[in-house]
Write a structure and sequence with these properties.
The structure is a homodimer. By secondary structure, chain A is of the alpha/beta class. Helices cover about 45% and strands about 15% of the residues of chain A. Chain A is built from 13 helices and eleven strands. In chain A, strand 10, helix 12 and strand 11 form a beta-alpha-beta unit. The longest helix of chain A is centred in the N-terminal third of the chain and has 16 residues. Chain A is globular, with a radius of gyration of 20 Å. Chains A and B meet through helix 1, helix 2, strand 1 and helix 5 of A and helix 1, helix 2, strand 1 and helix 5 of B. Strand 1 of chain A pairs antiparallel with strand 1 of chain B. Chain A binds a DNA duplex through helix 3. Chains A, B: Belongs to the SorC transcriptional regulatory family. Chains A, B: Keywords: DNA-binding, Transcription, Transcription regulation. Chains A, B: It comes from Mesorhizobium album.
DNA sequence: CCTCCCTGTGAACAATTTTTCTTTAATGTA
DNA sequence: TACATTAAAGAAAAATTGTTCACAGGGAGG
């Protein structure tokens, strides 16, 4: 039941082997045993290398044809929410795999749509993590990645800071991070943090981004924001009682997309929600049944240009 | 031992199912049994659909990291043969899979390097067939594909005409074909064919292409040119005796890349070899041990700008 | 109305892949 | 040196995938 796994203990650092094995297995169609002979290593090691290659996004799967129904949903979404583009992928059969599927599509989208010189303001979430993971490692000139969120003190693997860094590394971008925790202990501290010159500088850079990539979080209990302990369960209940349906950039919002009046929202160290409108292109990457409410809220009060989601969410959003 | 297979008998026309199944299997990582439950079809059918999806290039595998040694070979090739670009992939473990591997790389290259407005002059070969098969089906505006070779009367699956058509369809290009057999029965007939207005028109279009994509053939007996019967075994022997090391655009050439003086070369209905220099970018897609000699010959006497090959061939070409 | 193919399907079996658990080796620590 | 602790490799079992074969409709032609 561990929803958020730590980084796999065993990593194979040898990119050479991973690439070679992947070629033989996926492209040539050899059996793992055969590959073990060729590479002169144990059969099981081949298997482990291939697993690592998949997990790390060294091999990527691209599905050429899209599903008819998804294309129809894309059109409807564009029309309904005034999007410039929409991407809808089939829903994951296992609920918990939604981030995987949507992340995959997001990676493909970003690979095609990030251009030299772009400045990307980055949010946070499991879906985004998957997307970044699958992003091809190809440098794009003069790009910049700016994190819109502070970092977590614990919880390495799923961390705004970590994600931004990984993204930047993949595309050879400069990387700017908010050197503060995502939630300060108390509102006054937040204000102190945010007024720091270095923080203001990063926020300023984010404001000048031309692409914002973000996700929304729900209250389902496998949501990372709930799963990690940095928001107390009691606070989560209070937020829900106050009408919150989820969070965007770690700000909790109600069904109309407005920031809920609660102390937690005064402790968050992040790019200000209302300033998202300063960024020309906003890409919202989220999906799955349980995100429908938040997504609707986010779409209501945030100018989203591109929506990357799955069938379930698309249908949910369209069924008023 | 059937080297050149006919098109698989069983095709699944339902692109919807293929795409859905592929998503669940490759992206979400479900088991085939699970997918069968979801889609409400038998497990075995899922398996067959997935096979079809792979064969038809509906799912594609992309390997992100390249192999260090291959990168080094690419550099050496560029320098040695004055190429503007080189792509080297790991060699297939099973000799006969070389076209698969190289074709895969060629597809990736073409997908990234064909731009709107391009006119592509196309050669022929098993490797090219695989490349075309894996090409993503994405329209590229105002493109044109021109076949540089006549067609075969039999042998549907591996046919210059067929290949050109498939290529054109994939990228939404206009398609021009040479409406003559690749080898006329007698030289005078060839001249008659080639002087036809319609033929001249296509050749003219090819001459104005900006990209030529071609392959070379060797005398190994699984080579399509030998395998199909349109060159008699006795003629093949004569050609070899006359110093031919293989063919390029169905012209047989000697080790220096010059057209061998033999009747067969006077019967070929194809774009003239020496006119390749009129096309700014020439991409040579070939590899495998047995192609080294022809490739060297082709490189010696044809201005090749991009070479897509495998480790074996790369090493062979560099080891003088 | 009855064959004869032809196609699609599933069952049974074989091969491969994946997981789990054990063993081995390696490294650091008292 | 002995003792942990951890990482890597392997063997065996379990699960999944791939192949083969036989059978059930369902037209087309007799």
């Amino acid at each position: 039941m561990a929803v958020i796994e730590n980084e796999k203990a065993s990593r194979f650092p040898d990119a050479e082997l991973k690439a070679r094995a992947a070629w033989h297995y996926y492209v040539e169609g050899l059996t793992q045993e055969r590959i073990s002979e060729i590479l002169g290593i144990g059969r099981i090691k081949v298997h482990r290398i291939l697993s690592a290659a998949r997990e790390e996004g060294v091999v990527q799967f691209r599905i050429r044809d899209s599903v008819v129904e998804c294309v129809q949903l894309e059109e409807s979404l564009k029309q309904r929410f005034g999007l410039s583009q929409a991407v809808v992928v089939p829903s994951a059969a296992d609920r918990s795999n939604a981030p995987l599927m949507i992340g995959h599509a997001a990676a493909a989208y970003l690979a095609d749509n990030v251009n030299p010189g772009d400045v990307i303001a980055l949010g946070w979430g499991r879906t985004l993590k998957f997307a970044i993971n699958e992003l091809p490692r190809r440098p794009i000139a003069r790009t910049t990645v700016v994190s819109m969120l502070g970092g977590l003190t614990h919880a390495q693997p799923l961390n705004p800071t970590e994600s931004a860094w990984e993204f930047a590394e993949k595309i050879g971008a400069e990387c700017y991070l908010l050197p503060v925790p995502v939630y300060a202990d108390r509102p006054e501290q937040r204000d102190a943090f945010m007024s720091q010159r270095s923080v203001q500088d990063v926020v300023f850079r984010a404001r000048r981004a031309n692409i914002a990539v973000l996700s929304v979080g729900s209250f389902s209990n496998d949501s990372p924001i709930a799963h990690y302990g940095f928001i107390k369960p009691s606070e989560l209940e209070e937020l829900q009682a106050a009408g919150a349906v989820g969070d965007i950039l770690c700000h909790f919002i109600d069904a109309e997309g407005r920031t809920v009046d609660h102390e937690v929202n005064r402790r968050v160290c992040a790019y200000p929600l209302q300033d998202l409108s300063d960024i020309p292109t906003t890409i919202l990457v989220s999906g799955g049944q349980e995100k429908i409410a938040v997504m609707r809220a986010a779409l209501a009060n945030t100018k989203v240009s591109v929506l990357i989601t799955d069938e379930d969410a698309a249908k949910g959003l369209l069924n008023r």
